[in-house]
Every structure is written in structure tokens, then in C-alpha cells.
Amino acid sequence: MKILLVEDEKKIASFIRKGLEAQGFVVDLSHHGDEGFIAATTRPYDAIILDIMLPGKDGLSILRNLRERGMSVPVILLTARSELNERLEGLNLGADDYLTKPFYIEELIARLHVVTRRASGASQSILVVADLTMNLLTREVTRGGRKIDLTAREFELLEHLTRSPGRVLTRAQICERVWNYDFDPGTNLVEVYIQRLRKKVDSESEIKLIETVRGVGYRMKPDA
Amino acid sequence: MKPLPFRIKIALLSTVISGVVLVAFGIAAYLMVFRQKMENLDTEIRSLGTRHPGWITSGRDYERLDESLGFIFGENHRDQILLAVKDPRGDVLYASDGWPEEIDPKRIGGDLTDDPQAARAARDDEELRGGHGWGGPGRGMGMGRGPAVFTKIPRFQTIATTRGEWRLGTLGTDETTLIIGLNARQARSELNRLRDGFLLALPLALFLVGLGGWNVAGRALRPMRVIAHTAEHVTARGLDQRIPLSNEDPEIARVIHVLNRMMDRLENSFRQATRFSADASHELKTPLAIMQGELENALQEASPGSKEQQVFGNLLEETQRLKTITNGLLLLARADAGQLKPALETVDLTAMLEGIVEDTRVLAEESRLEFEVKPIPAIRVQADPALLRTALLNLFVNAVKYNEPGGTIVVELETRENRVLLTLGNSGPGIPESDRARVFTRFHRVDAARQRLVDGVGLGLSLAREIARAHGGELELQESRPGWTCFVMRLVAAT
Predict the structure, then answer these.
(1) pTM, to two decimals
(2) Which of the residues A81, B41, B284, B370 has the least number of beta carbons within 10 Å of its own beta carbon?
(3) How far does the CA of residue A69 sit from the closest CA of chain B (Å)?
(4) Could you report the predicted ipTM of this complex, rounded to two decimals?
(5) Which long-range contacts (CB under 8 A, 24 or more apart) does B12-19 make?
């Protein structure tokens, strides 16, 4: 998938690019608003990640001009501020999503998947790892053909893990993604849910999919 | 007692002052007119007295005098004029038919003192006329035909009887004393009319004065109202409001000027504070974003289970903590600058609370805490869901952290009219009296010795309170004693 990233802060741009490329995305990078706008209008992208504060054309004007030209490419906005009106303006102008810095690459990737899936139809609505299948639309989960009933929270947690097999997720990352808590309750919330999930997903199978990475967090067993 | 509004005070005060002045004036005028009327009567009595010809000596003559006096007053003269005559010893020589029984002529006037001036005038007069022929009462039984000259100082008094009020004048010579009474009814009734008119006009006048006071006070206060109105706007709409300066009185203009300058300064410092929170947002969050992103990538690249990966993992968790503190501080900075504006939408508080209770149960399992959730009614509030969740979560985490192992947490949600009350109690050891005022202070944690046991930052409660306030609510410590600490959050229900 080809992504355009317009971000003037070079270090942020660099880690986003690294993170996305590690997940198989192809990333074009632009540090200037005007340059970014030209790239966005001249080359085809599956999604655009736009910082709001940019030299030259700012993110919101790029977005407005893109939509005025009838380009419906999915756009995710980035900003350091969480001011409401900026957020609302962005969404009103046709942004598909919005992320406040600092954010986890995991989160950005997850949202990229969501907006591109939304744009391209339901083709990517099924996640598969080994014999585990998750249907994101019907919210059906099966393991080796056996149906698994999950609560909403458990489903989200499993989806989060399943999206990037082999990637380690820390408790804080999981907490923020699944519970939307931007703070670390510092306790065993994630552990408890991981245990519940293991009981439902892994207890009857030979191969344990949900792995603990000691001292770090959890991950979905990487595909062989 | 609530003090009366200024306008009412001014109106009352002007009414009272004018009332006192008017009543005093009225009384004075009444007395003056009364005196004037009486003096008129006295003059009339004197002039009537001088009709007394000096030659009259016997009772029959007095009767004729009485009649001739009565003739002046026409038909009902008995109601108008009275006459009595006394000799120097005080014996009554004559009294009119209609002389009222209540009045004893003997006691009227008493002993009259000599009027040397009148006596001298009488003598001079006599000499001028040749020494005889004009005998006045001064000469006693003289045959004079001129008007009587009274050598005693006359005395006047007013006596009320069943037949009316009489003005009695006692006029005397050495030989005879004349008591002439005139009915004062007319004078009195004129006075009464005057009094009634005054009493009738007084309330009306006072009402008008009060109304005038009310109006004047209102006009005087108008600039105050403008000032108050603008000040309200300033708090409600933003600091760019100024009080308009339109040809006000110098005193008021000064107040307006001072207030406007104060608002200038306020606006300035608020702008700076606001800009700080916006700048700080960017300046703090950018490096945090870089750290977090780089660590995240490094974590994935490190070989699974390696020491590096654990270090990156730890750093990432600490970055998260830093991020939480930064977000909290920026939220508080915005609240302080009055910029914490919740993005209101209708939030199903019941569902949110149930979700949080479910999560908190998991958190509380470690300490084997019991949950006692009173039936939660379906309640919706107008709130910013993200902020409200943060506030509630902070409260719940607080209740878990400061509880004793095996303790309980009590959750109760209720509505009273349009207010929502969330009561959250825990069986913790209680907050010492001396610390209660500071539980909402930033970075304050009760019992510094527990710092190692209790993880987290002392921002939770102050953050929760600011969020409650930004929603038009409040967060308070309701009660705290050993084994029971209870917080109450008030919110406004969605209509």
C-alpha cells in the first residue's frame, strides 16, 4: 500500500516512515506543505497522513483543496494540539481520522487499515492468523472452525494483536488502543484480559497463539 | 438579613426625609395659621370692645350693648358672640343669654395688669379733649361718648364647649371688666380644612418623592448596571469585552476607565497563559512523539526476548507515563486559562459508568476489593465523553488505590431534579483532617510514605475536579473517616 506522509518534523517523519515500512507500507515523505500538496495531487496514494502545522500550505488547507478537487483519498490528520475546533474542522473538511501527538505507530497503522478498508470496500475485513479467523464486519471469531464468543473488549484486544502478528505490544499500548485510556492504570487490567482471551482462544489448541514477551508485553505468534 | 437594593434604599430614604420635613412644615404652618386666625379674632374682639361706650353702667345698658353687638352678627348672633361684664371685685354684672354653662365668667381673665401705655394714652386723650365730656372707662362713670379705652392689658384664651369653641377676650378698665367671646368655629373649620388637605396631599407627595428617588437612583445606577453586565459578558464570552465610555459623569467614567484597564491586563495575561498551553502542547508533545515512535520501532526491531527489548519496553512504558502527566498538565493549564471547553454531546452516563466499573473490578481483583454498586438508573448527561471518562476513571482508580486489601467500593448514581450525583465511597483508612483541604491540590498525595505502594501521579483528583467544573458540575470530598472516604461528583443531566 502506498502512503504519502506530509510532516515537517523530520524525526517524527522518520520514525513514522520506519514503522510503516516495517509493516510493508510504501511511504513517500514530504517536509513542506506546498510540496506535499503537489505530490498528493499528482501521484496516486492509498492514504495520506497530514500534519496540520506545516511550512507553506498547512494540513487543513491541503485537505480542503484535495476535497475541492473531488479527490476522496483517505486522509489522517496529525496534530500536537487536541483543541476541539481544530479536530472538528478537520473532520468537517473531510478528514477520515485524527491522531493527537504523541501516538503509537501501532495506532496509526490500525487507523490506516481502517480508513483504507473503508475506502476499498470489505476485502480486508477478515483477519487470519494460523487457524484463527476474525471477521471484522460480522464480528465472528473461529479457531480451527470452532466458533468463539468474545465480549466487545476481548474482541478489540484480539483484533489488535491479530492485526500485526509478531509485533510486540506493551501494556500501555494495549491499554490505550483497547480501553482508550491515555494513562497507565499501572495494574493488571491487560493481564486479566489476556488471560481471559487465552482461555477462550488458546486453551483447546496445541498451538498457543497469544505469546508473552517477558518484561515487555504480548504478541500474536508470528506466521511461520 | 439580605441588604435592601440601593434603589429601594434611596427611595425609602428620600421618602422618610421628605416625610419628616413635610410633616414639620405642615405642623409649623398649621400653628402659624392657627395663631393668625386667633389674632384676627382677638383684633375683632378688641374692636368690638371699643364699641363699649363709657357711659354704660347698669345691667340694662349692658343688655343693650349685647344686643347692639349681636346686631352686627345678624340673626344667629347667639352662636356668634357672647358678652359678660364683671366689676372690679370679679362679680358678674351681666352675661349674655347664650352664655355657655361650662364657662364661669368669674374665672375668665383673672386679675388684669395695668397697661401704663394705654392709661397714659387715655389721659392724654382726655386732656386733649378738654378734660371732660369724653369720659372713657378710664374715668369710670364718665359721660364720654368716645370709644372705650381699656387701661388693662387684655387677655385672650380659647375654651371649647359643647356649643363650639370660643375665643374669649378679657378687656378691662379700673371699674369694669368686659368679656367678649367670639365663636372660633369658622376659624377652626378653616384650619381643619387646611389640615385635611395637607393630610390628603401628604401620602401623594411622599409617593411622588419616593418614585422620584427610585428613578433618580435608577438613573444613577445605570452605569453600574452597564458595568456589571459587561463584567458578566467578560466571564461568559471572553476577555475582549470592554465597557463602553459614553458621556458618563466623571466619577463613573473613572471607574469604567480603571475597570477597562484592569481588563486589558487580564486579557493580556490570559492570552499569554493560553498561548503557553498551546505552545507547551507542541513543544512537549513533539519530543514525546519522537521518543515514543523511535522506542516503538526499536522495540520491534530488537530480537525477541533480548535485554534490549526489555529496556525499550520499560522506556516505552515510562514514555507513556510522561505522556499521561503532560496531557494532564496541559489539561489543567487550559482549565486555568479558562480554555477547557468540553466538546459536549449527549453521553449515556450509565453505560460509561458500567464499563468503568467493569474495568475497575478487574483492577481491584488484586486487592480483593468488593464492589457494591447500587442500582444505576438510566442517566444521560451533556458532556465531553473523553474528558468525562478521564474524570471518572481517575476517581475510580483513586478509590482502588487508597483502599485497604479486602475493602469495599460503593458506587451510587442518582438524579435530583436536573442534577446528577455520583457518589463513590471506599473503605480506605481515611484522609487526615489536616490533608482534606489539599486532596485536590496538584501533585499532592495523602501520606507521602505510601508513595511507593501507590502508583501514579497526584493529578487525578484535581484533574477530575477541573473536568467536573468545566461541565458546570463540581467534585467534592463529602466525608472521610477511618474506613470510609466518600467523593461526590455533581453533573448536569441532559434534558
Answers:
(1) 0.58
(2) B370
(3) 30
(4) 0.78
(5) B12/B210, B12/B213, B13/B213, B14/B209, B14/B210, B14/B212, B14/B213, B14/B216, B15/B206, B15/B207, B15/B209, B15/B210, B15/B213, B18/B205, B18/B206, B18/B209, B19/B202, B19/B206
